[in-house]
Specification:
Low-confidence stretches: 13-22, 122-143
Order of helices and strands: EEHEHEEEHEEEE
Shape: globular
Helix content: 10-25%
Largest sheet: 8 strands, mixed
Number of helices: 3
Distance between the termini: 39 Å
Strand order of the largest sheet: 1-2-7-8-4-5-6-3
Strand content: 35-45%
Mean pLDDT: 76
Length: 143
C-alpha cells in the first residue's frame, strides 16, 4: 500500500453540547508526505480495536458539508482508508503538516466528521461548530 503507519496525535472522545454529554470517539493524525501523496492511510490500530470491530467495506468522511465515500481495506488487525482517500486529500487541498481529526459520528456506518487544522495555523477549521483546543497550540477554535 505504500504508506507508513500513522502516528496519532490523540485518540479519545469529544464531549459536545449537541450530543448532550455523550462521548464521540476520535483520532487525530498529522499528515506526512506519504499520507498526502499515496492512495491510502492507516487508521490507528488502537482506534480500530476499540471502535471499528465490525467488518465494513466503506466509510464516509464529511468535511464542510461535503462527503466522500472511502473504501476500507482490512489487513489483519490493520484498517486502511483506501480508494477515495486521494480525492478527499485533493478536494480539501491537504498538505504535509495539516492535522486531521476524525470524529466517529455513526458507528454503524463508519461515518466520520473530519476537522482540519492547517499546519501553518492560518486556516482554523470550524466544521464542528464548537470550541476545540488543539493539543500542540492550546488555541481554541470554533468560537
Amino acid at each position: 500500500m505504500g504508506t507508513s503507519m500513522p502516528v496519532p496525535v490523540n485518540i479519545g472522545a469529544f464531549e459536545t453540547p449537541s450530543d448532550l454529554g455523550t462521548k464521540k470517539p476520535f483520532f487525530e493524525i498529522v499528515l506526512k508526505p506519504t499520507y498526502v501523496h499515496t492512495l491510502s492511510i492507516y487508521i490507528p490500530s488502537k482506534f480500530v480495536e476499540s471502535y471499528m470491530s465490525t467488518h465494513r467495506q466503506t466509510a464516509r468522511l464529511t468535511h464542510s458539508n461535503k462527503s466522500w465515500l472511502v473504501r476500507l481495506l482490512r489487513c489483519g488487525n490493520l484498517l486502511v482508508f483506501s480508494c477515495g482517500w486521494r480525492k478527499f486529500v485533493a478536494d480539501n487541498t491537504l498538505q504535509e503538516g495539516d492535522v486531521c481529526s476524525f470524529e466517529l459520528i455513526c458507528r454503524n456506518d463508519y461515518a466520520f466528521n473530519v476537522v482540519i487544522l492547517r499546519g501553518n495555523g492560518t486556516t482554523p477549521d470550524k466544521a464542528l461548530g464548537r470550541k476545540t483546543t488543539h493539543p500542540s497550540s492550546n488555541r481554541e477554535e470554533g468560537s
